[in-house]
Design brief:
By secondary structure, this protein is of the alpha/beta class. It contains twelve helices and 14 strands. The chain is globular and about 60 Å long.
Length: 438
């Protein structure tokens, strides 16, 4: 087993830090890039680093930001790391020349740079300086009350990028050769940073994995979330009142909001969010984020920055399997979802050639549907994927059929919200369709 070797010192904004060397990689952990966001600075813009005296030990992970638990169905899939302390706006680095700044995922409500997936040692061995950052989460950063303070988590990320620009050379990195990368909410952050004037020039390339620029909230949606959160806390809908709530209580209330939205346990309550599944997210506030990221892209914002983007083919199964919903998805559900995201029936068909299938009657509590198979000329059963078994009692050789929509289901058009917030009606008759198209 390799031993950590101490003795590597670097001077950065705030003072001197001492890292560790392990298996040829020099790491500096828990280095603050902003002041602790507590006390008078709680729920406010990030403030400059507080200088320290002497040499700061950077051989251990720094504190994580306050956050609640994942919804119950996902907790065993995403183990959280909790490290106490106030200097939670920190980053970790490993040495090289090109620089990669990593933003973790977690639905803007969970995660940290301390989880194993954020360890950049492998890239560092290839000659890359890796900086994985923490940023404030949930209500502590994405609470929107239209009070001239918005998107504090994005402001944290910009502050971290500015710190990298000003300090990364001390670690052997090139401040002019920075790639911004993230996964899930981290990828959504990267896509949003491309549209933010305050982030312009802070990175030269961008990588987004499993996250889209469309995952933002309108000001009206942000206000609705803030109002309902204040109602749950039984306090006035003001920043001062919510900031005065003890941190543990606010964290629990925010976690309950995330669970309700992601698992759909209170659909009427959160109808204003449509099908986004995110209660705390970047808000198009007109200042920090002047326009929607997609609108910014259409007029050329971020064009000088090359973008590498990608998804996993079946990644949406994560949200279906964990909550035992894989066998409930029907054409009716998919088309309602398509309407909610602004996709028409024809566009949905072209972008989603494979429909998650329902198991046969022997493996389902309900009877297998009958009738023609939608969007497929043949109703020949498809074998289940060996890597994705069906519900309990099914095996990898179980046959799965695409779901069908019965006449009674077709007769009742749903009421959906388009991405612009307009309510739309979808009819499923033989040739009628009123799903709005972009």
């Amino acid at each position: 087993m390799s031993k950590d070797v101490h003795g590597t010192k670097v001077t950065v904004e705030g003072g001197t830090v001492e890292g560790r060397s392990r298996e040829g990689v020099v790491s500096f952990l828990g280095v603050p890039y902003a002041a602790p966001p507590f006390g008078a600075d709680r729920m406010g813009p990030p403030q400059p680093v507080v200088p320290w005296q002497g040499v700061r030990d950077a051989a251990r992970m720094g504190p994580t930001v306050p956050k609640g638990d994942y919804p119950p169905a996902f907790r065993r899939l995403f183990p959280e790391v909790e490290i106490g302390g106030e200097e939670c706006l920190n980053l970790l680095k490993a040495g090289g020349l090109p620089v990669l700044v990593w933003i973790h995922g977690g639905s803007f409500a969970n995660g940290s740079n301390s989880v194993a997936a954020c360890d950049g040692s492998a890239l560092a061995r290839s000659g890359v300086v890796c900086a994985a950052i923490n940023y404030r989460l949930a209500a502590e950063c994405f609470l929107f009350l239209d009070d001239c303070l918005a998107n504090l988590g994005l402001q944290d990320q910009v502050t971290a990028l500015e710190w990298v620009r000003d300090n990364i050379a001390a670690f052997g990195g090139d401040p002019g050769n920075v790639t911004m990368a993230g996964e899930s909410a981290g990828a959504m952050s990267v896509a949003t940073l491309l549209a933010m004037p305050s982030a312009a020039g802070l990175f030269a390339r961008a990588i987004t994995q499993s996250g889209a620029a469309a995952n933002t909230l309108t000001a009206e949606q942000g206000l609705a979330v803030g109002s309902l959160l204040a109602e749950a806390l039984e306090v006035p809908t003001t920043r001062d009142a919510i900031a005065a709530v003890p941190q543990d209580r606010l964290r629990r209330a925010a976690s309950e909001v995330v669970t309700e939205v992601q698992l759909g346990t209170a659909p009427d309550k959160w109808a204003s969010l449509g099908l986004r599944g995110l209660s705390f997210a970047p808000v198009v506030d007109g200042t920090v984020l002047p326009v929607h990221p997609l609108d910014a892209a259409r007029v050329g914002a971020g064009v000088p920055v090359p973008l590498l983007t990608g998804w996993n083919r079946d990644e949406n199964r994560l949200g279906l399997v964990a909550v035992n919903m894989l066998d409930t998805v029907e054409e009716f559900t998919l088309l309602a979802g398509a309407a909610g995201t602004g996709l028409g029936r024809k566009r949905w068909r072209s972008t989603a050639p494979r429909v998650p299938a329902r198991p046969p009657a022997t493996c389902s509590r309900r009877s297998a549907p009958t009738g023609p198979t939608p969007f497929r000329p043949s109703s020949t059963p498809k074998p289940a994927s060996p890597g994705m078994p069906g519900p309990p009692g099914c095996t990898a050789s179980t046959t799965w059929r695409r779901p069908t929509t019965t006449a009674s289901a077709r007769a009742t058009p749903p009421r959906c919200r388009s991405s612009s917030g307009r309510r739309t009606t979808t009819a499923y008759g033989p040739s009628s369709e009123t799903i709005p198209r972009r």
